[in-house]
Write a structure and sequence with these properties.
Blueprint (H helix, E strand, L loop, with lengths): L6 E5 L6 H11 L2 E3 L3 E2 L14 E2 L2 H9 L3 E7 L2 E6 H9 L3 E5 L2 H10 L4 E6 L3 H11 L4 H15 L7 E4 L3 H16 L6 H9 L4
Parallel strand pairs: 1-7, 1-8, 2-7, 3-4, 8-9
Antiparallel strand pairs: 3-6, 5-6
Helix pairs in contact: 1-7
Bound molecules: guanosine-5'-monophosphate.
The site of guanosine-5'-monophosphate has 14 residues, from strand 5, strand 6 and helix 4.
Length: about 200
C-alpha cells in the first residue's frame, strides 16, 4: 500500500547534530533530502546542489516572486528556503522526504501541510550545544553567539513539534527517528483509500 511519501521536517538549534543525523538517515534509509536555497556564504567543503543552492539575495527574491518556495525564512542575517517543485514531485512518487529547516520555516510548512511529521533535535544540555558549535570551527565567535541566542528562541517553540529526539547518541537518535516514521506510516488517516478499495472489492 504505497501512497504519497511523508514530509519529515527536522529542526533543532545549530550544534544539535541534526545535520549528522540527516546524513546518517540518508545513508541507512530510504529517504530523499530537500536541498535548500540560501543566501549564506558557501563554507569550505560545501558543494553547490548537494549542500545548498547558493543564491544572491536577488536570485532568492526572484524565486519567492515566482512562487517557487514552499517556505522561506531569515536566519541569523541570511535567507534560507525550500524549493517547492522537488518536494512535490518526490512525495508524489511515494518517497519520504526530509526537510532540514529552522523553526519559522517549519511553522509555515505546518500551516500548509498538517500531515507532515515534525521532529525537533536537541542535545542533552545547552553546554554541549555550545561545545559542538565551538569545536566545529566553521564560524566566528560573533556568529556562534548569535546562533546560541537563536537556539534559545528555537527551544521555546519545541511544543510546535510532534516529537523530540535528544541526540545523546547517534545510533539511538537514528533508531528513534526511524521508529517515528514507521509509526506515522501506520496512522489510520493514511489508509482511507486502502479501506475504500477493500470495501469496493469485497470478492477480491
Ligand atoms: P546553516 O547555515 O548552519 O547551514 O543553517 C542554518 C539554519 O538554517 C539551520 O537551522 C538549518 O536547518 C536552516 N535551514 C536550512 N535550509 C533551510 C530552508 O530551506 N528553510 C528554512 N526555513 N531553514 C533552513
Amino acid at each position: 500500500m504505497k501512497g504519497e511519501g511523508l514530509k519529515i521536517v527536522i529542526s533543532g538549534p545549530s550544534g544539535s547534530g541534526k545535520g549528522t543525523i540527516v546524513q546518517e538517515l540518508l545513508k541507512q534509509g530510504d529517504y530523499k533530502l530537500s536541498i535548500s536555497a540560501t543566501t549564506r556564504k558557501q563554507r569550505t567543503g560545501e558543494i553547490e546542489g548537494k549542500h545548498y543552492f547558493f543564491k544572491s539575495k536577488q536570485e532568492f527574491d526572484s524565486m519567492i516572486e515566482k512562487d517557487e518556495m514552499l517556505e522561506y525564512a531569515k536566519f541569523c542575517n541570511n535567507y534560507y528556503g525550500t524549493p517547492k517543485e522537488y518536494v512535490d514531485n518526490t512525495i508524489k512518487l511515494g518517497h519520504d522526504i526530509i526537510l532540514e529547516i529552522e523553526v519559522q520555516g517549519a511553522l509555515q510548512v505546518k500551516k500548509k501541510y498538517n500531515e507532515a511529521v515534525f521532529i525537533f533535535i536537541m542535545t542533552p544540555t545547552f553546554k554541549e550545544l555550545k561545545n559542538r558549535l565551538v569545536s566545529r570551527n566553521t564560524e566566528s565567535m560573533d556568529i556562534i553567539n548569535n546562533r546560541l541566542t537563536r537556539a534559545c528562541e528555537e527551544l521555546s517553540l519545541f511544543k510546535e513539534y510532534d516529537y523530540i529526539v535528544i541526540n545523546d547518541n547517534l545510533e539511538d537518535a537514528i533508531r528513534e527517528i526511524n521508529t517515528i516514521v514507521a509509526a506515522e506510516k501506520l496512522k489510520s488517516g493514511r489508509y482511507e483509500n486502502f479501506i475504500k478499495n477493500v470495501l469496493a472489492n469485497q470478492e477480491a
